[in-house]
Amino acid sequence: MSSKMTSCIFCKIIKGDIPSFKLWDSEKTFAFLDINPLSLGHALVIPKHHGAKLHDIPDDSLHEVLSVAKKIAIASGAADYNILQNNGRLAHQEVDHVHFHFIPKPNQKEGLGIEWPQQQGNMDTLKKLAEELKAKM
Fold first, then answer.
1. Residue tagged active-site, from 50, 97, 99, 101
2. What is the pTM of this model?
3. 99 is catalytic
4. Nearest in space to 14 (alpha carbons), one of 41, 47, 38
């Protein structure tokens, strides 16, 4: 086990070294309530495979993650909610282990607040970018 895995707070939660309010535990996925919630029911769904960013996680370890987030959303009864996943410090990732937030939005004050600084896209630039990305996938 690498030193990153042994020092990772989420890896410690998965192993049971740190207690959690566990919601789901399977071979590849773990989910628990956030202890500093943006709203009641805020949960984290994480692959058990340690990796800092989404592209570090094998596809087979991600297979169940959104399914579990969906199960939590249904169980919560939340009519409005966000599913959020950040990669890197500039994108507001604080723990270097991939995790998905399920955040109920019961009203304007609680839950996730998002500014969405849209810009008018240049259609020629977008067309070129789409072709470049498709060629790399």
1. 99
2. 0.88
3. yes
4. 47
